[in-house]
Hints:
Elements lengths: L1 H16 L23 H8 L26 E4 L2 H7 L14 E5 L2 E3 L11 H4 L6 H7 L2 H4 L7 H17 E4 L3 E5 L4 E3 L2 E5 L4 E4 L2 E3 L7 E3 L7 E3 L5 E4 L2 E6 L2 E3 L10 E2 L2 E2 L7 E4 L3 E6 L2 E3 L6 E2 L14 E4 L2 E3 L7 E2 L3 E5 L2 E4 L8 E4 L3 E5 L2 E4 L9 E4 L4 E4 L2 E4 L5 E2 L2 H8 L25 H8 L8
Parallel strand pairs: 1-2, 2-5, 3-6, 4-7, 5-8, 6-9, 7-12, 8-13, 9-14, 12-17, 13-18, 14-19, 18-21, 19-22, 20-23, 21-24, 22-25, 23-26, 24-27, 25-28, 26-29, 27-30, 28-31
Antiparallel strand pairs: 10-11, 15-16, 31-32
Helix pairs in contact: 1-2
Amino acid sequence: MRSSRLTATVVGSLLVLVSGAALVVPGTASATGRDDDRLSWGARLLGRQVLPAGDGWAAAGPGTTGGSAATPEQVHVVRSRTELVAALGGDNATNRANATPKIIYVKGLVDGYEDADGRLMSCADLADPEYSLDAYLTAYDPATWGRVAPSGPLEQARVRSVANQTRQTQINVGPNTTIVGLRGATLRGLTLMVDTANNVIVRNLHFADARDCFPAWSPTDGDAGNWNSQFDLVSVRRSENVWVDHNTFTDGDNPDSELPVHFGRPYMVHDGSLDVTHTASRVTASYNRFVARDKVMLIGSSNTVGPDVGRLNVTLHHNLFEGTMQRLPRVRFGQVDIYNNHYQLSGTGFGYALGVGVQSAIYAENNYFALGSDITAADLLYDWDGTAITVRGNWVRAGRSLPRPVDLLAAYNAEHDPDLSPDAGWTPTLRAGPVLPAPLVPLVVQTLAGAGRLPL
């Protein structure tokens, strides 16, 4: 919190000194070449800002500096998917290996479905010629196909369609990169993929609707089967030292609540907001807003004991989870520090907040939970084959009652078996500034979290 206030004070003072004037950055390699690609002093300062020392797991090891060392030729302003790919290195298929320090400012709306000519494509444009949803629903109806996984030419055509979409809407980010949204910037219909890309910073962006055009039917997922999607808004895999800060994550104008039902189950086209998987580690997510989403944050994607052991270390602080349903986060293996976050949770579709998974070590301190009348403190934890969680100083406001301190673990254990242990086996040391008392968290988080709150 102290570092955020200091940043706001310094940037705000600079903006006052220059009277809000936008200045041309000498040597800025604008991807558009337009005269109005100007950056204020505040934007320039934020583009060069590094993660403060001690600010969560992303401060471990070498720390997180992103593209702060970029030369003027590697500072870009982008307005389209084509320009974003060009700024990241020029070839989406190989950009994940481009380790040149770079700062990328996003201006306006960038849509992942935009082709090279600026035309917005549809799901039909990405579908394999042998695929159609109508044919898929007819072929794999459990009433005739049975409760076995789809197979054969039509399922193969769906897989090829997913590959087409991956090439189009999955935007690959390389190491030593900072991506900053200018005022009102939105990334829509795309996945920002940070895979084998150490030292990345993503700030001040509105992420919306990373929809999957071709969800997979999984008949044995749960008692009734489920539709599963592939594309997250931001995915961090096989990477270290990643800072995700002051962003907003939503489904845009395509909420899950308005999607159809097929095979008796919601036709889910969205996956995670910010997932950390496949041995990734040293991630800090701070001052973000996760709004009206079902699956929010998966930390670790498999129960298999192997490469993830000792990895998946993540810090979450001063984030807002508003109207979200599950995975806030769900954790496997990692040491995950969750403090000073604000949860506003309600609705019949709510599942749980903190998922205690295999060999996970969650430390949850001074968080504030505002709960609808149909949710109790006992509903906030969920045992995904984990054994322990440390909880300290958390407060709950249930319905119209007054907020009060609640032992989340005691509330859970009183209604569920087997009990979870109260000691996750570690104590966080990487925190930039004092931990706020839980009653102050709503005011601070509501004021500062999300895109558009940084002074630009």
